[in-house]
């Protein structure tokens, strides 16, 4: 299947590290050293996961015709409404009746799970043009006074139009997607949690998250390459989940790839959850060259993981 177009939306409010220095004494240099984050975006008072999703879709409408979309898959772990999901709000916005509309939540890995759902619909001949929308409103749930993880989170969204057949020479080919659950590893079910009726998103076992992310993302990336009959020498870029720059660099080191092949936006956007990699694809779409191969690899709480190989 193919990615015909991708777009993203970022709130206008920028929150720099100095905000957390004033709030809880965390030095900007310490935050940058530990995470790579210099600033992040924060949704406005009238914005939420649903409105962010619609704005990403509006941006996609400027690039592609969405009138014949026959499947919508939404993904978020920071929902505005757990009944009227962001996928339903997007369907309402597009005014396309009587098509499958589903939502997925598997933490920061949800982008690839959403794409894998599309793959299943395509394989069963239940759809041909699918819209995937990923949106996170982390600042609605976080505790910014939490010195462990309060400074990590940012808001953002992205939308992708996937098709069963190639629509344009500029389409990206999706060669392979692999996802998995790793709930049996380490402190998977307690390391990072979001319980809305309690304290929101917290990360009591960040070190366990770090070590497992550094293990699973390189591993599944190599599995995708093996399935496609390729090696790391055939890879032009790695786009990992934007959780922590140290994790991304560790992944590159484990894979034996130079840092110039790393795509990263965490320094500007913070951890934007399952939207981060899609935003990265959107931001770099025009810089990719024909024939280049990109591995998108993700890891999320729970634990969940995955990788996808795309070719320009």
What do these coordinates show?
By secondary structure, the chain is an alpha+beta fold. The protein folds into two domains: 2-163, Thiolase/Chalcone synthase (Peroxisomal Thiolase, Chain A, domain 1); 172-311, Thiolase/Chalcone synthase (Peroxisomal Thiolase, Chain A, domain 1, 3-Layer(aba) Sandwich). 31% of the residues lie in helices and 25% in strands. The chain has helices at residues 18-24, 28-35, 49-61, 86-94, 110-123, 206-227, 245-255, 266-269, 276-284, and strands at residues 2-9, 13-16, 39-42, 71-75, 101-104, 129-137, 155-163, 172-181, 193-195, 200-202, 237-240, 293-300, 304-311. The strands form three sheets. Strands 5-4-6-7-1-8-13-12-11 form a nine-stranded mixed β-sheet, sandwiched between helices. A two-stranded antiparallel ribbon has the order 2-3. A two-stranded antiparallel ribbon has the order 9-10. Helix 3 runs parallel beside helix 4 (86-94). The longest helix has 22 residues, at 206-227. It is globular and about 55 Å long. This is Ketoacyl-ACP synthase III. It comes from Nibrella viscosa. Keywords: Acyltransferase, Transferase.
- Name given to the CATH homologous superfamily of the largest domain: Thiolase/Chalcone synthase
C-alpha end-to-end distance: 12 Å
| CATH topology grouping of the largest domain | Peroxisomal Thiolase, Chain A, domain 1
Number of domains: 2
How do the strands line up in the largest sheet?
Answer: 5-4-6-7-1-8-13-12-11
> How many whole angstroms does the radius of gyration measure?
18 Å
**What is the highest CATH level, the class of the largest domain?**
Alpha Beta
Q: If helices are DSSP runs of H or I spanning 4 or more residues, what is the number of helices?
A: 9
Shape: globular
Poorly predicted ranges: none
Overall number of strands:
13
Can you give the helix content as a percent range? 25-40%
Major sheet, described briefly?
9 strands, mixed
Mean pLDDT: 97
Instruction: Report the structural category.
Output: alpha+beta
